[in-house]
Amino acid sequence: MLNADQNELDKFSQLAHRWWDPNSEFKPLHDINPLRLAWIDSHAGISGKTILDVGCGGGILSESMAQRGATVTGIDLSDKALGVAKLHLLESGNKVDYQKSSAEEFSDRTPACYDVVTCMEMLEHVPNPASIVSACSVLVKPGGHVFFSTINRNAKAYLLAVVGAEYILKMLPKGTHDYAKFIKPSELSRWAKSALLEPDELIGMTFNPLNQRYSLGHDTDVNYLLHTKKTS
Q1: Which of 6, 28, 49, 213 could form a disulfide linkage to 115, CB 3.0–4.6 angstroms apart?
Q2: Which residues bind S-adenosyl-L-methionine (predicted)?
Q3: In a domain, 170, yes or no
């Protein structure tokens, strides 16, 4: 059975044409991308590396990694998002190999092929996130880096990521997130260790509504990122 929620795919497919509009529903992705890109680069030194971006969507992170000198492949299950990603390459001149595939299917075809694997803002949208974590481990080379980002599951996360972001500040469309699919850092770390991925750094990402800026820091109550390394 495909590890995907068709309602989630349909939801993002309907918005795909707005992926590269920095003032659209995807504005938060544009705003956080410099932060997550710099954080990934600080750990993995991505120039010259082979990178797989799992759940690449319209390619915001994929293209930025390619701009820094990486050889990037992006996979997703949304035809419309991939179509937008490919069209944007014509405008930007960047090079990314976009393919329609699940993480699990791609891991069967290309095990241990990548220096770096990224899976950002995706785990909270799939039925079986632990399976995605396991597939990412299969895809990365021994000693390679795997990066995840997702949303914590607690009352504060519900208030800020769902009520605040979707209903009060209207930063995201209503229904973007399902609180029941949020993931505690302890759960993600446990899945990673079970997949032979050793957690290295857990860091939070917060939003300041006063200056409209995101920052990385110690607060992992809502959004957080996890860097892991493949142990063998």
Answers
A1: 49
A2: 36, 55, 76, 120
A3: yes
Asked if residue 18 belongs to a domain, the reply is: yes
- DSSP lists the bridge partners of residue 148 as 119, 226
Q: State the distance between the two ends of the chain, measured CA to CA, in whole angstroms.
A: 28
The enclosing domain of 134 has a CATH number of 3.40.50.150
CA 115 vs CA 33, 71, 90, 98, 161: distances in Å: 20, 10, 26, 17, 32
Q: How many domains does the chain have?
A: 1
Residue 1 lies in a domain: no
Ramachandran region, residue 55 (left: φ > 0; alpha: ψ -120 to 50; beta: rest): left
Q: Report d(CA 134, CA 132) in Å as an integer.
A: 5
The predicted-structure confidence for 133-176, as pLDDT tens digits, reads as follows 999 999 999 999 999 999 999 999 888 877 777 667 676 667 67
Q: Is 55 annotated as belonging to a binding site?
A: yes
pLDDT digits (tens, 9 = 90+) for 165-205: 766 767 666 767 788 899 999 999 999 999 999 999 999 99
- Write the DSSP assignment of 5-31 as a string of letters: -HHHHHHHHHTGGGTT-TTSTTHHHHH
With a CB cutoff of 8 Å and minimum separation 6, the contacts of 42 are none
- Please say whether the dihedral angle defined by the alpha carbons of residues 6, 21, 33 and 204, taken in this order, is positive or negative: negative
- Are 37 and 64 within 8 A, CB to CB? yes
